[in-house]
Structures are given as structure tokens and as C-alpha cells.
Amino acid sequence: MSVQVFKFGGASVKSAEAVKNVAVILRQFPEKPTVIVVSAMGKMTNAFEQIWLASLDNPTTINEKIEEVKNYHQQIVSDLFDEIPNSLQRTLNEWYTDLEQKARSPKPAQRDYTYDSIVSIGELLSTTIISAYLNSEGILSEWKDARALIKTDYTYRSAHVDWKKTTNQCQEQILPVFESEETKCIVTQGFIAAADTWHTTTLGREGSDYSAAILAYALDADQVMIWKDVPGVLNADPRKYDNAKLLPSISYKEAIELAYYGASVIHPKTIQPLQNKSIPLWVKSFVYPKESGTCIRTDVPQEQLIPSFIIKEGQRLISIATRDFSFIVEEHLSHIFQVFSSHGITMNLMQNSAINFSVVVNEDARELPLLMEELQQTYAVRYNEQLDLVTIRHYNEEIVQELTGKKKRVLEQRTRNTIRFLLK
Ligand code: ASP
Ligand code: MG
Fold first, then answer.
1. Domain count for the chain
2. What is the pTM of this model?
3. Which of 34, 88, 330, 356 is the most exposed, fewest CB within 10 Å of its CB?
């Protein structure tokens, strides 16, 4: 059966207006059975993170934070419906109660477990509302709990997918729904999954793109469309560069490279499952759904190799040396990598010399203070802050000059296709 997967992120469902636009888009692409993957509305995931923190560290503020989340959703619902359907309000109330219970009985020894069980409610609420709205508009949809579809291990907050179980569940639960003539869409949550029936997990912040790719893989979908507030994949961040240009089609490889270096259009894990099955991924504007956007796929005959650049601000350069100035050898490196991995800190760039190993990381990485402490127990550690990491794909002298200008180059790395600078 030929199925397609659409993904709507937080910005595309942040208000009643935005939710109405989802229906407009679906009406423009009526051909195929569609699995719709939806994120939490607007910036709700941040609000849920605040509830989680309050539940563990500051319980007196829980009520007001929960009120805020309830009011936000209730406002959207009352803007969407002249009269809120009873069944919808009942389901929403159940999620609110669930949220209250979870926030009032956190498991302090299991912070990440508690995170997933609280934060996942954002997606459960958004999909409940959207599914009900689509039905009220005559777009028949069935709501599915993604925790019954995407199966993972128990790594809370960045769970790993069990592909076999997931494929089985998706095929068993989704395909039969589409065999009945009327139901055209299934609405399910991005970002959330489960380790078994009762243990909710999540796939990491911004993980809904990845959810869409997982479902597409499991269902052998014909295509995936990610609906964004930008026209597609651009060669630079359009919020910062007026001259950013659309890349009409790029290969999976180029997309993976761009995502790896920090282009924020698609979640880095999204491409791999799609590439495995050669499923094309469209990145399109929810404001101009008829525009073609970007297509990411296998064969891009004349790949446009115009310079693309990614700038990451707020970077810290950590220099690690042995205390006795002896060489940094494999044994040290293996220990250093293990420390980074155990704190879940991503190395954005690394470079080594005889007695120094240098790593660039995000200054706001969650466990950075703990990591620094642990490194200092063994090594002489220095660091430098407030740096920008600039990556240019398909670079030329002109763009290098434009982006590095008069700034001090703290570090530089160059391959045939990519050049990277750490700037002060
Ligand atoms: N709602 C989640 C987040 O904001 C997942 C997503 O939006 O992709 O991180
Ligand atoms: Mg989001």
C-alpha cells in the first residue's frame, strides 16, 4: 500500500490559525493515505520541561506552571470550535489529570524517566486536539498513541529504536486502518515512544522529524513531507541572512553533512532511515504549501554545490593536556571519549597535537560542569568561551573572507569540501 508521512512541528500548530492551516494543507494533498506526525504546540515542550524541573526541585510552583499549559491548550481549543466536543474535552481533562499526577509524584532518583513521562504529554495533547479538529472538518482521522508504534530501549530522553518491533507494530496497527475506505489519515505524536507498554521514552529534543522518518521506514512510505516555517533547506539560516538561497534538491549525503555541522532544518537522525529505503524527503513551507521546497533523495544529477554555511554561537574550546606534559596517546583519548560519552556531551569539533587534545562543545550543554570536573581530576584542563564555530561547505575564498572577516581565528580545519573556523 502506498502511504505518505507528513510532519508538523511546533511552529506549524502553535495557534488555532496554524491548526486550521494543517487542514488546508491536507486538502491540497488528498491522494494518499497519510500518517500525520505532530509535535507539541508552539513552545510547549519548554513549558513542560519547566513543570518537570519544578516537580523535582520546586514543587510549590507546579500549579501555576500546569495552569499555564492548560490555559494555552484550552485557548486554542476554544478558538477552533464554536462548541468544544464533549469527548475532546474529556480526553484533554484526562491528560491534564495525568500531568498533575506525574508532576506531583516525581521519581527524584530517576530524573530522566520522570522527564519523559511528563514532557511527552505535550505531544499527546496536541495530537488529541488536531485529530478532533480534522474530524470536525470532515477529514476523517484516527488518533494513534505513538508509544504503541515506536518501540525503543530504556535510554530515557534519547532512546534507541528497536527497528524490528517498531516495523511490526506499525504494519499491524496502521495499514489495516487505511484498508477501510473512509479513514484517510492517522494522527500520531512525534518525539515520543515507549520501551514497553508502560515506559514512555523520548527521542531527544526536536525528535519529531526522526519519528516521521521511523514511521516512513516501517511503512515503506512513498515520501515524507516536513512542513516548516522556512521555504525548505537553505544555504544559510534565513533568520540571520537575507540572501539565504533555497537548495531545490540535495542528496542524502549532503543533508547528513549539513545536519551534522548544525544546520537546524532537520534533525540529524532523520536521514538515515530514509536513505536506507530511498524514501524522498521534502522540506516545505507551511505558509506556501504549493511551492516545491527542497527534495532530499538518492540521485541528484547535478548537485548544486553553492557554498552553504552554518554558524554555531556560544561555543567553548576545551584544551586537555596531561599533567606531566607527556604525549597525549590513544589510552588518554579513549578515556577522554568515554568521559564525554558518559555525560552525553557532543564534540562539535576536535583537534589534537602532541600534548594537547582540543574539543569544541556547546557552552550550554547540560552536564558540562560535571564533565569539566571529571576531566580536571586527571588532566590539566583550560578553556576559552564565547566563540563562534563557522562551518562552510563547498567554500571559496570570497565566502571565507565574508564570514571570518576581522575576527580572530582560534582554530581552523580544512578538507576538500568543508572548512571550519573557531572564531573569537
Ligand atoms: N516537541 C519536541 C521538542 O520541541 C519534539 C519536536 O518538536 O520535534 O523538542
Ligand atoms: Mg517542538
1. 2
2. 0.91
3. 330
